[in-house]
Design a protein that fits this description.
heterodimer, A: 197 residues, mainly alpha, Four Helix Bundle (Hemerythrin (Met), subunit A), B: 93 residues, Helix Hairpins, 0% strand, elongated
Chain lengths: 197, 93
């Protein structure tokens, strides 16, 4: 299990170092996903399976979807399509693919070991976490829920298209006139997803 | 703990070195991840669940921060009218 910890720690550091040195945002995102998965494996070897699962679901799942979605919004039109064709050539997948393959091999190894938890450290299961989370930290849970609500409202407010800026935005992407403010985010979204393939 | 420190340092280097807003946000993710890893490692060291609870709070904070930060990046993109997200963009807007 110490070997698994060391290997995944090395993968995490390598992926992070490669991530901050990429010039391309999409390549950096690939390395960031690998880094997050490696950190999730580290958490699993530390005896925290619940937090490791949350790391994969929320960080590597939800937040990466947000990042990819914003990048699709930022690169609209034919120019974005051409750039994405250059981004998604097979050479870009080799580095993250190798690092992710190391993690897959490690996952199989960890699952094949009968006693799958850390030996030197005491494992803290999901039950203990839940008992503490909804016991002494109940106020913190409520505060976090309010923080998330504030984040949702703030992101919605900031992402709303103001009319005077919308004209500039329309001029940039050289599209037809748009009448309603409510229709603009939908049109932008469809434009972003249409440029994806 | 050493891994957490290295991850935090790499994220800090990313924040300081890169000028692209998306890169800065991703480096912030790495920094928060390193801090959370330190929490979980300390919790596993002493067998307490408090570290994982703190990690959950860090996770929720990072989620809210990413949502607001990406919305801010969208607004900045529309205001500065720079189409290339890979270009170095100064925060003058």
């Amino acid at each position: 299990m110490l070997l698994a910890f060391n290997v995944s720690a090395g993968v995490a550091i390598a992926a992070t170092a490669l991530m901050i040195t990429r010039l391309n945002v999409v390549h950096a995102l690939l390395y960031l996903v690998v880094s997050l998965l490696a950190v999730a494996t580290v958490l699993f070897t530390l005896g925290a399976p619940f937090v490791a699962a949350l790391e994969v679901i929320i960080y590597a799942g939800a937040m990466m979807v947000l990042f990819v979605f914003v990048m699709m919004l930022l690169n609209l039109g034919r120019r974005g399509t051409r750039e994405e064709r250059a981004w998604l050539r097979p050479g870009a997948w080799v580095g993250p693919g190798i690092l992710a393959a190391i993690l897959v091999v490690q996952l199989v190894y960890v699952l094949s070991v009968p006693d799958g938890q850390a030996a030197a450290l005491r494992a803290v299961g999901p039950k203990a976490v839940a008992l503490v989370l909804f016991g002494p930290y109940l106020l913190g849970v409520e505060l976090v829920s309010m923080l998330l609500l504030a984040g949702i409202v703030g992101a919605y407010h900031l992402g709303w298209n103001h009319p005077e800026e919308r004209e500039d935005f329309d001029a940039i992407e050289s599209a037809g006139p748009c009448d309603a403010a409510g229709g603009d985010p939908v049109r932008t979204r469809t434009g972003g997803s249409a440029g994806a393939p | 703990m050493l891994l957490a420190a290295i991850l935090f340092g790499l994220g800090l280097a990313g924040v300081l070195a890169r000028r692209n807003v998306i890169f800065i946000l991703m480096s912030l993710e790495v920094m928060l991840n390193g801090a959370g890893l330190a929490f979980v490692a300390a919790g596993a060291r002493w067998g307490q669940a408090d570290g994982q609870v703190m990690y959950l709070f860090t996770l929720a904070t990072a989620a809210a921060e990413v949502a607001v930060g990406l919305a801010l990046a969208l607004r900045m993109f529309r205001l500065l009218k720079s189409l290339d997200a890979d270009l170095a963009r100064r925060l003058r807007g």
